[in-house]
């Protein structure tokens, strides 16, 4: 549980309609945050609003920079500046071998990566200005142990990791005492959704400098 440091904070959950998005949104609301949850499917967002009362939802294709800018302008107008970004847009495509890594699958991962680039570029000034700015993403053990059958996936997750750690380097320079970017690492999120929610909330309970730029195993067996 949070010590109350999320009271009055606004957190955008990007890719909020999955099981992990629901758990993270629920944990943040319970900890006192104002949660702005984003996905593309109206039905998924409606189900989220029902499951987690108090959440504000927006349908937005986060792979479009123009749509992200319009969304952020609307959040600024309706809610104010953003203190946290939890990026959960993911998905998986296999392929079976290096030759089986299709361009269509790479385009899928590139679209997901663009949602990370767009949201961080649009919100970095807010996160730096916040008294407690936080960015969290979820990576995979595939980054350190890539396979031929999932090369597209591992390469895209590695790119996302590098991007988040680049944001962390900027925070170290521009807001060393207040802003932090961290990457959670899992093999599978299945069954770890609530733990992810708790650990996201905990990011606001620890010193920014302690957690900034870290990769944090979420599964205890990954120690
Ligand atoms: N699941 C696992 O076992 C696992 C393992 C390792 C790492 N991870 C990582 O953990 C994170 C969460 O994974 P997950 O499996 O819970 O999520 P997921 O099933 O991949 O869910 C994707 C979420 O992103 C949204 N989304 C997709 N494209 C979007 C777009 N263009 N704009 C806005 N929203 C978009 C989806 O909402 P709509 O359907 O409404 O568009 C959905 O809420 C991801 O980064 C994933 O790579 C997951």
Q: Strand order within the widest sheet?
A: 3-2-1-4-5-6-7
CATH architecture: 3-Layer(aba) Sandwich
Give the integer mean of the pLDDT values: 96
Task: Estimate what percentage of residues fall within beta strands.
Answer: 15-25%
CATH fold description: Rossmann fold
Total number of domains: 1
Bound molecules: NADP nicotinamide-adenine-dinucleotide phosphate
How many DSSP E strands? 7
Secondary-structure content class: alpha/beta
Q: If you compute it from the alpha carbons, what radius of gyration comes out, rounded to the nearest whole angstrom?
A: 16 Å
CATH class: Alpha Beta
Task: Describe the protein.
This protein is α/β, with parallel strands linked by helices and 223 residues long. It has one domain (10-222): Rossmann fold, CATH 3.40.50. It is built from 7 helices and 7 strands. It has helices spanning 19-30, 42-51, 65-78, 103-129, 151-174, 193-202, 208-211, and strands at residues 10-14, 34-39, 56-59, 84-87, 133-140, 179-186, 215-217. The chain has a 7-stranded parallel sheet, with helices on both faces. The chain is globular, with a radius of gyration of 16 Å. The model has no long low-confidence stretch (mean pLDDT 96). Residues 15-21, 38-41, 44, 60-63, 88-91, 115, 138, 140, 186, 188-190 line the site of NADP nicotinamide-adenine-dinucleotide phosphate (NAP).
Q: Helix and strand layout, with pairings?
A:
Blueprint: E1 10-14, H1 19-30, E2 34-39, H2 42-51, E3 56-59, H3 65-78, E4 84-87, H4 103-129, E5 133-140, H5 151-174, E6 179-186, H6 193-202, H7 208-211, E7 215-217
Helix pairs in contact: 1-6, 3-4, 4-5
The structure holds NADP nicotinamide-adenine-dinucleotide phosphate.
NADP nicotinamide-adenine-dinucleotide phosphate binds at residues 15-21, 38-41, 44, 60-63, 88-91, 115, 138, 140, 186, 188-190.
């Amino acid at each position: 549980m949070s010590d109350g440091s999320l009271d009055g904070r606004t957190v955008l959950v990007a890719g909020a309609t999955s099981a992990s998005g629901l758990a993270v949104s629920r944990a943040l609301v319970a900890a006192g945050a104002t949660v702005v949850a984003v996905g593309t499917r109206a039905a998924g967002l409606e189900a989220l609003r029902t499951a987690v009362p108090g959440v504000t939802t927006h349908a937005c294709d986060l792979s479009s920079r123009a749509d992200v800018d319009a969304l952020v302008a609307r959040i600024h107008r309706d809610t104010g500046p953003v203190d946290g970004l939890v990026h959960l847009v993911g998905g998986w495509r296999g392929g079976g071998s290096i030759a089986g890594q299709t361009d269509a699958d790479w385009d899928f991962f590139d679209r997901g990566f663009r949602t990370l680039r767009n949201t961080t570029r649009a919100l970095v000034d807010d996160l730096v200005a916040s008294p407690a700015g936080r960015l969290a993403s979820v990576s995979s053990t595939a980054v350190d142990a890539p396979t031929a059958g999932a090369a597209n996936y591992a390469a895209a997750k590695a790119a996302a990791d590098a991007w988040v750690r680049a944001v962390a380097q900027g925070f170290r320079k521009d807001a060393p005492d207040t802003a932090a970017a961290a990457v959670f690492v899992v093999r599978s999120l299945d069954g770890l959704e609530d733990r992810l929610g708790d650990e996201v909330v905990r990011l606001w309970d620890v010193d920014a400098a302690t957690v900034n730029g870290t990769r944090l195993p979420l599964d205890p067996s990954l120690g």
